[in-house]
Fold this sequence. Notes:
Elements (H helix, E strand, L loop, with lengths): L3 E11 L5 E12 L4 E5 L6 H9 L6 E6 L2 E2 L5 H11 E4 L11 H10 L6 H10 L15 H13 L5 E5 L7 H18 L2 E6 L2 H4 L5 E3 H4 L29 H8 L34
Parallel strand pairs: 3-8, 3-9, 6-7, 7-8
Antiparallel strand pairs: 1-2, 1-4, 4-5
The structure holds adenosine-5'-diphosphate and magnesium ion.
Amino acid sequence: MPLLQITDLVKSYPAPGGGVHQVVNVPAFALGAGEQLALRGESGSGKTTFLNLIAGILAADSGSIQLAGQELTSLGEARRDRLRAGSIGYIFQTFNLLQGHTVLENVLLGMAFGPGADRARAAALLQRMGLAGKHDHYPRQLSTGQQQRVAVARALANQPKLVLADEPTGNLDRRNAREALQLIRETCRETGAALLLVSHDERVLAQFEHMQDFTHFNRAPTGATATEAPAASEGQTSQTDASKPTPATAVARSAGVTPNAAPCQSTRLPSARCDTATPFGRPVEPEV
Ligand SMILES: Nc1ncnc2c1ncn2[C@@H]1O[C@H](COP(=O)(O)OP(=O)(O)O)[C@@H](O)[C@H]1O
Ligand SMILES: [Mg+2]
């Protein structure tokens, strides 16, 4: 059985004028353990929504997502968050680093919501990323290329089975983009993680032996329709749609944090706070 198996996955958003706007309709998709696949898709084609469904950040309307044999769609939000913390690494285009925390803390926080903070592993990862001397720097003290490498280290912190990368080089210049992509691919190979990357950048897509057109297996109608919701720009929050994860909630949830659950009980970092609280938080779900 593949690492990731998706069947009849459907996700729609409410359209502003009433009705719904279907964004994802994937009858079948699979990714093997350790496999690396790039998905090509134009802006607005539903790539981020697809990754957020796989990561459990968004709930599907219907269909099945199995990760390592476990059905994600039948889990409540809290359990999806925990599964993600332990099994999935997420690399965002906008990095989504916690600005109030140092480089080392960003990686340790990623671990704290999975198997637990492991300083030796965090240090080894940062060294692998060429950031050995930057542990105590804050994200704003780093170049964009270095910030993305911290985000890669954080995504790999919990030895995930699957790494999702959403336009991970979109904010980098050409040289940094090439280096970051190489690093992501190499470190996934070294750790045995599968990699699913989405992009519209042909230079990025051309690096992959395996590339698929997202629109080939996504049957949701493409292009603007009369009922289509306007796209919120990348990394920004739509004021009118509380269901869309903000960058802060997305990173918190990628790390397995429940937004608004400050202070973080599960971290061993003395200074750690959930500075990710947002008005979009949700109550912690009871275990199912
Ligand atoms: N929370 C939301 N509410 C309504 N429409 C949304 C929401 N999130 C995304 N969309 C719409 O879904 C479509 C796909 O968005 P997205 O998954 O971000 O595409 P991509 O990542 O390929 O650019 C776009 O038309 C966008 O406007
Ligand atoms: Mg996107």
